[in-house]
Amino acid sequence: MTRFEESHSISCHPLFEREAYFQLSNLIKYFIKSLDFEVLDIIEDGYFEAPKNKNKKQMSANDSKAKLNSKAMHTLLCSLNGDVSKKVSTSKSAKEI
């Protein structure tokens, strides 16, 4: 009987394993791209909270970036095992993770 390896689900993110870091980092990157290209930009470029005294247009752009940062952080944290997740749980941005 032929044994088939379990495939990755297109709706679930891959889990980070230290032994297969390079392969998994690419899978996670493609998974994040499938969610939203801007999420990957937030991870790679970083997110910096704008000062609160900006005009409405700037605040609205900052709010959308804050949402993307949260989405990116959630995706990355869900991809990590418990030990690694604990180490980065105090991070303020996806880039820090």
Give the termini separation: 43 Å
Uncertain residue ranges = 1-7
Please count the beta strands (DSSP E, at least 2 residues each): 0
Number of domains: 1
Oligomer class: single chain
Write down the Rg: 16 Å
The percent range for strand residues is under 5%
* Number of helices, counting only DSSP H or I runs of 4 residues or more: 4
Which geometry do the CA atoms define? elongated
Order of helices and strands: HHHH
Major sheet size, sense and barrel closure: none
Query: Fraction of residues in helices?
Result: 55-70%
Task: Classify the secondary structure makeup into a structural class.
Answer: mainly alpha
Arithmetic mean of pLDDT:
77
Question: Any overview of this molecule?
Answer:
This protein has 4 helices and no strands. It is mainly alpha-helical. It is elongated and about 45 Å long. The longest helix is centred in the last third of the chain and has 23 residues, at 56-78. The chain has one domain. The protein has helices at 21-35, 37-45, 56-78, 82-88.
Q: Summary?
A:
The chain is an all-alpha fold and 97 residues long. It has 4 helices and no strands.
Write the layout of secondary structure elements.
Layout: H1 21-35, H2 37-45, H3 56-78, H4 82-88
Provide the descriptors you would attach to this structure in a database record.
97 residues, mainly alpha, elongated
